[in-house]
Amino acid sequence: MPADSHNQRLLVWRERTCWLGFAAMGLSLNVLGPVLPALRTDLHTTYAALSTLLAVSAVGTLTTITIGNRLLDRFGYRTVMAGGAFGYGLALLGAGLSHSLAGWIVAIALTGMGSGLAEVVGPRWVGESMGSRRNAAMNLLNAFYGVGSLVGPLSVAALASLRLPVTHAYLLAALVQFGLGALALRVFAGTRPPQSGVTSALGGWLWALRRPALVRLTGLLALYVGCEVAFADWVASFAHGVDHLDVATAALFPLAFFAALAAGRSLASERARHWSEEAILAAGIAAALLGGGLCLLGRGPATLAVGALATGMGFGPVFPTTLALAARWAPRHQSESFSLLFVGSSAGSLSLPWLAGQMATRFGAFSSLVVPAVGTAGLGGLLAWVARARGDEADPAIDPAAG
Question: Who has greater pLDDT, 216 or 333?
């Protein structure tokens, strides 16, 4: 009995460590956007140059998402989770102490790799260990990520208000990652390297690419993630450059956006009981489009705050609802489907935020939010394209049993 009790406590702490890992990832990833206005001044650089940071972060994430399961198969949870957290912490420390654009590029690329590992490790542990509690645990992973996303901009606003360097937010994120690594070393001791049986990443993508309905969903998700990341990363620069707000106040707009994003995802879970996936997506895209219009056409902090809230609320349901559609269309091949979807989301997070920075340099800070607004309008057209596949469950392009 004592041994069973000890094993149960370890299981609980391993689950908590995964949750904390997602909270730490939310904090670490979402410090960058609020810091950009200060970095532009401190490094004497342009929005276009800073957009490189967003691109290399996405490349790093895609790299470790691709190889993460193989690393787990070979080295096990303890080594990958602890090593990843310590490496993530060192990269964040490097970013916080760097005084050159080149140093920031290297550090942010490495932080992206840390994020990619976290995206693989947490969901896989939950999927293998939680049994009937898997869905609830997955939702908690997303909830903890949302909490971390709020702490990131809040820490930047607090540092700016105290007239401290806002890049010190990266030092806070590094301390959190070091603590997470130490916890992982302790609670995952004695775990054996799991064997996933997951097909190669390339094989999974090729399988999904032969399903036109999944390709449609991938296009939708890629554009959505690009819009979400571009808005979150550039809304502070928009507030700073267009409305001439100080860095502390500007950091509150991504905070509002992430709070509304979390609320939108919670509301989507409730709406899913009564609405179809397509209806939820249509309502969310419409709300986000309205929010983007308010940000661009209105003036002043109040209008921008309402626009950020509406955009976050509208974007909230899109990601989980898209995954739900993929799960419905390929219930026995979710690994392959999600593999392609996550590659698409990484492509979106790589391209649109970078494009927004290029536009801001050429046409001014106002155009940084034009990119996600135009992209959101495009989501409506893509949704109509996706909706044509609804109800066609016997089509071999959708039903894996027939393909």
Answer: 216
CA distance 269 to 123: 19
Q: For 192, which DSSP code?
A: P
Q: pLDDT for 36-91, tens place per residue?
A: 999 999 999 999 999 999 999 999 998 888 888 888 888 888 899 999 999 999 99
- Is the separation of the CB atoms in 17 and 110 below 8 Å? no
CA 237 to chain centre: 19
What is the end-to-end Cα distance of the chain in Å, rounded? 49
Write the CB contacts of 344 (distance below 8 Å, at least 6 apart in sequence).
218, 219, 221, 222, 225
The architecture in CATH of the region 1-198 reads Up-down Bundle (1.20)
Tokens of 376: 């959101």
The position carrying tokens 């919670």 is 266
Question: Is 321 in contact with 277 (CB distance < 8 Å)?
Answer: yes
% of the chain with per-residue pLDDT over 70: 83
pLDDT digits (tens, 9 = 90+) for 192-205: 655 555 545 555 65
- Using DSSP, state whether 43 is helix, strand or coil: coil
Beta-carbon count within 10 A of 182 CB? 13
Alpha helices (H) in 273-317, listed in sequence order: 277-297, 301-315
Instruction: Judge whether 92 and 177 are in contact, CB under 8 Å.
Output: yes
Output the pLDDT for position 330: 62
Intervals of CATH 1.20.1250.20 along the chain: 1-198, 199-403
**Burial class (CB within 10 angstroms; exposed 0-12, middle 13-18, buried 19+) of 190:** exposed
Please tell me the distance from the alpha carbon of residue 199 to that of residue 69, in angstroms, as a whole number: 10
Q: What is the distance between the alpha carbons of residues 31 and 175, in angstroms, rounded to a whole number?
A: 14
199-403 CATH pick, 3.40.109.10, 1.20.1250.20, 1.10.10.60, 1.10.10.10? 1.20.1250.20
CA pseudo-torsion sign 224, 230, 236, 240: negative
Question: Which residues 6+ apart lie within 8 Å of 271 measured at CB?
Answer: 280, 283, 317
Token pair for 248? 């502390």
